[in-house]
Task: inverse folding
């Protein structure tokens, strides 16, 4: 199912003002700056009423709009809305680009995909609908461009998918450029996380206490040299390990010193 594009008429004026300051002044005065590219690639600066153009786009998508653009007193010409720039904060229109087209020359354009219906896998099996692909590329004449493709997903069950090849297009008017085996929509099982009881969480989260100076399992005492030795009185990473042997030596020294004083 496709939806055809309506004919739109648009009026604009030639624009002589260039530069960021002059363009900012135009915007303050209610004008929208833009550029029209002709079939030879030449550009022509234009300006149009911003409020009128916003009303024109309000109920239409920004992409693939074909218009009859009349600049000043020139004859209207067919143009394709190529690009629209907006203020990210206030969402105001900032700039617009048009591309002049020939009605006898094919174009490559993206077309949006809209899903319709409620899948059986969602309503009866508690599944989740995944919209995997939102646009496809097609080649066709300008007047054969469509707004969107509508894909019915109401018959999908859990594990089912629809692909690009399932889109209904008029092969006499357009050619699909996107690979046919790419999935557009699927119904999947909901992701359920296993519930962990508080007691189990406490047991699983408990870590064994680390014994400082303990040797790794399987290592025989006395093996290895340098850092990591934990014998009493030896250094571990430059620090002395306090043990019984150094304490015994200190007491013996005090006892000997005391006997020396008695002899004096």
Result:
């Amino acid at each position: 199912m496709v939806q055809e594009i309506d004919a739109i008429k648009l009026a604009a004026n030639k624009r002589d003002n260039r530069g960021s300051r002059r363009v900012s002044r135009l915007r303050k005065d209610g004008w929208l700056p833009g550029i029209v590219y002709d079939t030879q690639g030449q550009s022509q600066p234009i300006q149009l009423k911003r409020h009128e153009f916003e009303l024109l786009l309000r109920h239409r998508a920004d992409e693939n709009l074909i218009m009859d653009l009349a600049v000043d007193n020139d004859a209207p010409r067919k143009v394709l809305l190529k690009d629209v720039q907006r203020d990210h904060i206030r969402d105001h229109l900032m700039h617009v680009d048009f591309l002049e087209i020939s009605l006898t020359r094919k174009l490559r354009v993206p077309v949006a995909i809209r899903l319709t219906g409620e899948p059986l896998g969602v309503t009866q099996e508690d599944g989740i609908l995944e919209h995997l692909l939102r646009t496809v590329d097609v080649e066709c004449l300008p007047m054969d461009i469509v707004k969107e493709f509508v894909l019915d997903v109401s018959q999908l069950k859990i594990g089912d998918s629809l692909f690009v090849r399932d889109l209904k297009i008029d092969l006499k008017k357009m050619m699909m450029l996107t690979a046919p085996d790419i999935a557009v929509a699927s119904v999947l099982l909901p992701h359920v996380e296993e519930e962990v009881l508080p007691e189990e969480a406490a047991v699983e989260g408990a870590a064994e206490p680390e014994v400082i100076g303990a040797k790794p399992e399987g290592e025989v005492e006395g093996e290895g040299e340098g850092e990591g030795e934990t014998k009493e009185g030896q250094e571990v990473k430059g620090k002395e390990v306090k043990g019984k042997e150094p304490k015994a030596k200190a007491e013996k020294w005090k006892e000997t010193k005391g006997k020396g004083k008695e002899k004096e």
User: Anything to note?
Assistant: Confidence is low (pLDDT under 50) at residues 1-5, 224-244, 260-264. The radius of gyration is 39 Å.
